[in-house]
Design goal:
This protein is mainly β. Helix content is 0%, strand content 55%. Strands 1-4 form a two-stranded antiparallel ribbon. It has a two-stranded antiparallel ribbon with strand order 2-3.
Length: 33
């Protein structure tokens, strides 16, 4: 499942059981499950 939304929120990336949060207002918000 992939969700992408153009927002100024922090960039959150989820890989398996781990996740990475990047403070990037110029990047889209992505959620990978």
């Amino acid at each position: 499942m992939y969700c992408s939304q153009n927002t100024i929120s922090d960039h959150v990336e989820i890989y398996g059981n781990s996740f990475v949060i990047r403070n990037d207002p110029n990047d889209d918000f992505s959620l990978n499950l």
